[in-house]
Design brief:
93 residues; mainly alpha; two-stranded antiparallel sheet; 3 helices; 2 strands
């Protein structure tokens, strides 16, 4: 259950972070490009702080780093301590 929740959170953040970053950059008036293609602003530029979404983007960036680290630690735990063949099963896919 924990693995499914962790994977779900990682996938959710992998989608939410770029979108919230695009939004925050648009609020700041910073141009955004994706693989060399300029993306349009998705909101109007504002003076001052970009707002709540930018704050959430920053916090979610920290959370995804912790989740990725925990993900790596758990993979090592399965390989070295539990020796349950999880990494071998994953590499067969």
């Amino acid at each position: 259950v924990a693995a499914k929740i962790g994977h779900g959170a990682l996938y959710l953040l992998l989608i939410a972070l770029p979108l919230s970053g695009w939004y925050a950059a648009s609020r700041l008036g910073v141009p955004v490009s994706f693989f060399g293609i300029s993306l349009p602003a998705i909101t109007e530029r504002v003076q001052g702080a970009p707002g709540l979404i930018a704050d959430l983007h920053e916090k979610a960036g920290t959370i995804i780093l912790y989740l990725a680290g925990l993900h790596a630690v758990m993979a090592i735990w399965h390989q070295v301590v539990l020796r349950d063949g999880t990494l071998q099963r994953m590499s067969l896919r």
